[in-house]
Each structure stands twice: as C-alpha cells, then as structure tokens.
Amino acid sequence: MLERLSWRRLVLELALCCIPALLLGAFFGYLPWFLLASVTGLLVWHFWNLLRLSWWLWVDRSMTPPTGSGSWEPLMYGIHQMQMRNKKRRKELGNLIKRFRSGAESLPDALVMMTEVGAIFWCNGLAIQLLNLRWPDDNGQNIVNLLRYPEFNQYIKKRDFARPFNQVLNNGRHLEFRIMPYTDGQWLMVVRDVTQMHQLEGARRNFFANVSHELRTPLTVLQGYLEMMQDQPLEGVVREKALITMREQTSRMEGLVRQLLTLSRIEAAPALSLTDKIDVPLMLRLVEREAQTLSQGRHQISFMVDPALQVYGSEEQLRSAMSNLVYNAVNHTPEGTHIQVKWEKVAHGARFSVQDNGPGISPEHLPRLTERFYRVDKARSRQTGGSGLGLAIVKHALTHHDARLSIESVPGKGSCFSFELPERLLVSDKVLAAQA
What we know:
- With 436 residues, the protein is an alpha+beta fold.
- 55% of the residues lie in helices and 17% in strands.
- It has helices at residues 2-28, 31-60, 72-106, 125-131, 143-146, 150-158, 195-231, 236-268, 280-295, 315-331, 378-384, 390-399, 429-435; strands at residues 110-115, 120-123, 165-168, 174-183, 186-193, 277-278, 300-305, 311-312, 338-346, 349-356, 406-410, 414-422.
- The N and C termini lie far apart (96 Å).
- Helix 1 (2-28) runs antiparallel to helix 2 (31-60) and helix 7 (195-231) packs antiparallel against helix 8 (236-268).
- The protein has a five-stranded antiparallel sheet.
- It is elongated and about 155 Å long.
C-alpha cells in the first residue's frame, strides 16, 4: 500500500513540477529550458532529503527519523515503523536472554558454553566459583588452558562424551563433567560438584567395614568356643570361663546393635518440635546412680545440678547425649580419676559439662572424636566395651537441639566435654511456679 502510494506521489510530484514548466513554455517559449529547470529543482529537493536521511543513518542515529513531505513522507514513516518493530524485538530478545540467564544462574550445576575447539563465550556464576573462571576476562579463552589437567585434556581431545568425566581438582573438589553438542560447532558443558557424594560413599564404605570388623571379633570368639564344645565337652572352670566369655561377647554385640539403632533413629528423626518438658535434674539423678554402678568405686564422681533448671526438647535424645558423656568419662579414665558433672544456668542458656583430671587426649584426635567408630586407644576401648559410637550419638542428638558439642583436653591434665542449650529451650520460672 505504501509502495503504491509512494509511486503515485512520485508521479504526482513529477506532474506538478512539469505542468508549470509547460504553461510557462507555452506562454514565453523556451519549453525545454523550463522543463530542465523544473526537473533539476525536483532532483535537488530529492537530493536534499537523501542527505537528511543519510545524516540520520550515519551521524545522528537517533530513534526517530527526520520528518518528510511528499513522496518522502511514507518512506520516513516506514523507516520509523521498522525501527519501532526492531526495538520491540530487541526488548523481547533481551527479556528472553535475561530469563535464560536467571534460569541458568538458579541451576545447581555450573554451565559453560563454548565452541567445539573449546573457546568459552558464556558461563554462569557457579562455573566461575567451581572452575575459578574470571568473567568476562576469560571470554574467548580455551577451556583446556584454564583447566590444566591432563586427564581433562584427553577427555576433550577424544570427543567421546557418551559418559561423564570425573576430575579431582587441586583443592580436593570432585567434579563431574558432562559435555553435550547442542548446535553446529557449539558445546554445552555441565559441571556438578560431587564432593559430598564421594564423602558419603566413603563414609558408607567405612561404616560397613567398621561394623563388619566390630562384629567379626565377638563372632570369631563365639564360633571358636562352639567348635571347641562340639569337639569335646567342657567341664569345670574351662566351661565356666567359656560361658562367661561368650556372654560378654554377646553383650558386646547387643550393645553395638543397640547403639547403631539409637544412632540411626536419631539421624532419621525429623525436625523436633522441642515442646516436651524435660526434668533434667531427675534424669541426672538416674544417670548418677548408673555411673556409680558402672564405676564400682573406681572413680570419684560428683554431680553439681541446678535442681530448678528444666528444658524443652526430646527426653530420649538428651538422655542419650548426657549419659554417653558421663559413661565415656567412667569407661575411658583410669582408676582414681575425679569426674565432675555440672548442669547449670549460664548467660545464654543451660550448660552441661563432664570434666575429669584423667590422662587427657592429644590434639590430633580431637577433630575426629565424633566420627563413627573412631577411637583414640582401640585396644583399651575394646577392653572396656567401647564401640566408638557414643560421641556420634551425642553430636546428632545435640544438633536436633541447636547445640554443639565442645571438647577441651590437655594431655596429662584432663578433658572437658560440654554443650549449651539455647535460652529459648529453658522452662521459665513462671511455668515452674505454676507446675508447683
């Protein structure tokens, strides 16, 4: 429509330019000169508008083209409409790119877009963090120049991307690389941090290995005595010794299974509401009697308990945490050791501590004490029946109560195991008064 309108205007402009020249030529003569002058004027006018358009395109470059008249009006209007359409498309494309980048940044994986020769042209924030890229400084750099690992270089060169590639970085991170061609000459590399997965797999292997090892010893003892009893009847002192040993080993396996079940139950427990009121002083009186029975007079055990200090939480888990700390002090300190247990109110909550003046623990062992089956002295732990699960139970039980186990120990002077429950878990004096 605009094209036909433009041609009509051109013809109309030419006719309007020539009609005065024809009239003047018919009246004064010199018709060719009048026609030449009128056509030249028309050409000059078109040339002027062409210069204005050229100035706008290459010098001015504003969004709005210059105004035009005659046949130039629909041309300028068409250019203006095209500019508006392009502006709208650029805006839509910008919004699309923005949404793509927002989605890519929210992904749990690192994304790197590169050419098939390995030149990077885009990456998300997680890729910068995991791969130590510097963006936009690394734009155009080859990926093998930034990740200098021979195995990764071979993976890129082989171009066999059917299976993911795992690489351990210098900082100890385990990364899984997947590369997918998504268009001609371009690759998408997805990098996932699988460090925690490797750690969990290692912990699982160690857990089963430790459980197998812990159960193998008592089972071997039981099997040996059973084979002995099968070969020949046991009588007298030998029979009594065999029965006592088998009973001890059975109790040891039973205790190990019980602690494993306790640890599993605590780990699998959902977030606690922490609304059950716990009479900790009453609980500690029972723990004190059990500790005295376990010690059989070999230790000096004293309890300093605030009789009015009660808390909210899980009674089963808190009892497991407190009793394990007390029993560990009894089991793993020599005869004559003084063990002091405190339950007191502090500035930011309630503090439970078990302190002894025993041989203490070397500093290199302290960070690993809460690991499952970890023992400072394996031979002594087996003699006392320790399984290496007590402090792991304590750690997970305290986690559910927003608390953390603190361990202080000086070799030759003793150890102190303690934790603090937050103030929000304390039972207020008003509630205790209403209860009374």
